[in-house]
User: Fold these one by one.
Assistant:
Number 1:
Amino acid sequence: MRLLDYTMQLADYVESNKQRLIERWKQYAQKRLSLNLDESKLLNELPHLLDELVEALRSPSEDWRPSGVAARHARQRMSIGIDIGSLIKEIALVGETVVELAESDAERFETAEIALLLRGVSEAAAASASAYADMRNREAAQQAAQHFAFIAHEVRTPLQNARLAANLLASGPTTAFDEGREQLDRSLTRLSDLVDDALLGARLYAEPTLRVQPVEVRELIETAVGEASPRAQTRGVAIRTDVREFSIEADPKLIVSAVTNLLINAVDSCRNGRRIDVRARLAGDRAVIEVEDECGGIPEDLVPRLFQPFAQADDRPRSHKRGFGLGLMIVKQAAESHGGSVNFVNRPGVGCCFVLDLPRRRPDG
């Protein structure tokens, strides 16, 4: 009976000071966790979570479990890009906020009451983490299914073209032989690109140890330009370079793959006679590599999904859709694996510029 009386006191304190707790938690979240969101997104389910803690304090049963509030909060946090570690910290901060506000008010509660409060916070954190993990697993499974479906679709076309090319080769006439040979070469190149991208994407997803070594950026750029040049020449697109002399510590294969993917995306998006500029320079202790094209800009509906695998513009016929396959996902993962980033400037009606920002030296180097 004594426990229930004390529990009512703490429950009443939380309930009567709800707005003060929200304001203090908001300050803590912004300062300690760097959650710089607008108020509605920042608070989200916090007021309802406090209500649930009051319920838990008034019903000190071992069977008490949080309702769907914690799961809804987890879904919202995942949708705006907050990681699971930050999610757990912000829920734990609720318990800290209650205790610290009570101390500042010179309020004293029994240890058993505080234990009930912390148990409620722990249950809410566990429910949020479980919901977050479930959603992340579902998303990963869905993404894997999309990967397989897209790759199967993309492989079908060059395989059909290769079959047609084989028929032309078998038909005998010189013109048919030349046409068949060219088509077969294009089809096999496309198949090779798909396989290479899929393997590299799998390697990056597995987060391997980077094969870091000192490399000259000019050599990396020249290799990437060499990889993209045959396709550029076929499409009548010129590639110009302006590369300063400097070295970085990086995995050369990953950086070459990243720049090559940026170039190939630019080539595929440009019309005959357009130009692509590749620049590389130092900015303090950072290496900056830019690939700028005259593609006419990126469709607005595609911008938010640009670095997702197989993103395609929705507002064009299929034959004219702009899509990026695995390319930009590989660029993003390669940059981030080096402690860097990739950004872009979109100029509708003109073109766009992708910017690789990389540390010149590895942090542990």
Number 2:
Amino acid sequence: MKRFIMILILLAAAAFGMYAAYHYYHDEYLPEQEQKQEIQKAMTLFEELKPEQNLPENDQIPQAEPLTEAPRFADPVSAVFSFLMPTQPEIIPESSYSETDTEPEEEIFKQEEEEETFPEILDLSDIPEMIDYDDNPLETAQDFNSDLIAWLTVPGTEIDYPVVQGTDNAFYLKHGVDKQESVLGVPFLDYHCAPDFSGFTSVLYAHNMEWVLLFARVYSFKQPEFMRTHPYGWLTFGNQAHRVDFIAYETAPDGSDIYHTEFIMNQDKRAYYHILKKYMIHSMNLPSEEELAECHLLLLSTCTFEYQNARGILVGIIR
């Protein structure tokens, strides 16, 4: 009788093991492999569409170390579907933060205390602010997708992607540059912004993906030393590549007033200086209130998960 019971237990354990293995294979392994294939396809397409820009090299910029410290969900699918785009900008009261949320004012104080230990800001005097091309380097890519408006490159990082603009802030969240459904999506400009980046603020959104894809690297700029050693990027559109000089890293809730895109009066632009200061973790070569009002700002926004609906935002000036 005992032998029979033992046989039944072993058979039950074997059946359970086979059941678990079957569900793991179909529910986890296969979806993960399909996701990897989908991402590889998207990255290959990015490489095929990449324009010949001939950007100047800078040996002073180190290649970023593998990203391991960014807070994120365990799987990229969760990260993707947690990404909720700002819609109606609004000021978020302090009471909306929990006791465990990171307070920007405290972080600013900590960063200021450590400022003397930061590396020197790289000298950009030999790097042109603008590069002119005889022809539009994005012509081939724009023939592939007319929504493609620019190409963003940040030397020393993995950020080297096309930028599209749709008719809303939802489509390219779950669709690739080929307009097919994609877990990766593609960096896109807020549909309220001018496609030629002539507005006061131009906001780019992209997922914070595992494997350091899309805007995952934006989180590294939260460290002042990283921004100082990676102080600029390139935004190519039309017949020019414009240098983008990074000036600040911000942490703000989704839907906060930092996402404003319409500025009627010059005083509205000057007021934006104080909005940046409100959410600022640290800054570098930050212009004065009056100087900032004369600039064209580029914001790179992504999820960073410090608290619910937290967004990390890298702010730069388009030269």
Number 3:
Amino acid sequence: MLTKDELDFLNKIPADKKVNFHSFDPKVVRMAEDLIQSISNIFPDLEVKHMGASALGISGQNDIDIYAFSEPKDFEKFLPGLVKLFEKPLHRHETFIEWKFKREEFDVEFYLTTKDSKTMKKQLMVFQTLKNNKDLLKEYEKLKESMNEKSFREYQEKKYEFYHRILDNKIKAIIFDLVGVLVLKKEGFIATSPDEINAQNIEKEKLNLSDGEIKKALPYIPTKFERFEKLWEILSDLKKQYKLAVINNGNSIALRYWKEKFDFGIFNLYINSGEIGLRKPDPKIYLLTCKKLDVKPEECLFMDDSLENIEAAKKLGMKTIWWNKGENKEKLLTEFKKLVNS
């Protein structure tokens, strides 16, 4: 159901107004980067963000949406410099100031705005959701293309409905991968002792070892890992809002030692593939986790360092964050916090 503000906006759109979409043009991004740089040259500490279809790399109205974030009490501090760049604003409101102008063939909308308004929070959440989910992004682009040269009012209504659908499925559970997300390999760790080397072979399921060698090596399997402390520090707060689970592709014989080294008591559920005979990316292991947590897949946020595992979760409708092994973990943590604290 649309909100009163959304319905009011729809009623203000002229009935004969049409919408026209164009294929994504990389030049739009370069133009947006130039505009952002011109702002940063004057206000280096001002947070500026390119959003909208052009920032997502999809078909759109050949326009550029740029937002600079500030508390309303500080608007006057930035206004003179922005007026020099973009001339006088078109509108001034309590929570934002709006400019509209043209740069070459592109229409530009620039906002100096607070992040804390209900509308802005929703826009940021929609943008982040689409950026993180390629399937939803494709669906959004198809919606736009299907409305080309049709009623702008009808398009805006369908867009609002799409936004509600992707946001109203609120996250109820967060599912973590173990190695690569919750725990990371110790920097500079090298297996040197026979037991440490054998432990690595057990992890890789190279079990051409004697029973005695396996027994001695098992306690060493988790020793090369350490908690990603900044993530673990926020688990207790997350537990107040979400159900928490772990899905680990691991063997069952070492599970005891993982649990001795790392206390998983904060989690509602710990799924070990070796115990249940299922491994990621088999959809059954995700669905089993959802069943045990009593949530739907679309109500879950799943994080893993394997792209294959991420893609499998997406196909079930889960929201995902890929903890790419080459990505900065602090950056990924920030992205995660934005998603769960929005």
Number 4:
Amino acid sequence: MIDRLLQNNTAVKILSIILAFILWLYIAGDTTGAPGFDLTRDFIRGVTVETYNLAGNLEIADMVEEVDVAVQGPSERLVGLTPDDLEIYVDLGELRGGEHQVKVRGNAPYGVEIENIYPSQIQVVIDEIITRQMEVTPQLEGEPVEGYVISDVQVEPETILLEGASRILVNVEELWAVVNISEIEEDSDLTVPLKPVDDTGEEITGLEITPSEVEVFVSVDYLEKEVPFEKEVPVEVNIEGELPEGLEIKSIEVEPERVVLLGDEELLEEVNKVKTAVLDLSDKEETFSQEIELEVLQGTSLEIEPRASVMVVIGPVEE
């Protein structure tokens, strides 16, 4: 039967027309044609670019992370198509450290065709992963309890392995173990994290530190203070100025009357009293009380605050 049809010129022509029409519908890129063969186009923005086959000793320092993709396919397949439905990637298998222009490739779901990717090539900056061994530098913060001093600091382990991108690791100047010694008054064993810093003391991040913590042994010594020499002396009110005519001082009382001076023995041998600051009696017409500073010889100190209360009793001159 097929042989008879092929020998019939009219049948062959009709069959050829039908096949041509079907082929045209298949390859046409517009929305006209028979149902089930409609093709339409769409533009998917912000599709994430995946990276494949990057060598284990390399990492991406910089690259374009998203591209836009033009797709076409039957309208029913493009409805609801999202960036996550597309596989857009760059193959980094043959690349080493440096800057590269890499072709962006992609795969789409069944029935959807990727027409174009914008941009079709992206720049990828690849950095080599390197290691570096560094000594740990103890960095002390704060002050120990008064009377104590840090005599020694030991770190265990003393050297640490750093791993990371060469562009980052090259900037590490020191590896600090920051130790807070505030209020320390005895030998201490502390576990502290490590802090890579640049030449300005700023912390550098993005590195793998093995181990990430160290043991710091802080030795503390007590400084025995010399007990100062003590001497008890009277307080003398230092008066200046004159009362108005017809008035006189009846009495002067000071509290405390005596104070204990502390200092070097040789220095205190020459001290027999502690004076108050100047108390001016000019224009005083009646009894008064006043708080006043005590003047302490340089190199000495008092057990109490260097102040005294003075009361001056004033009355008429007795004839």
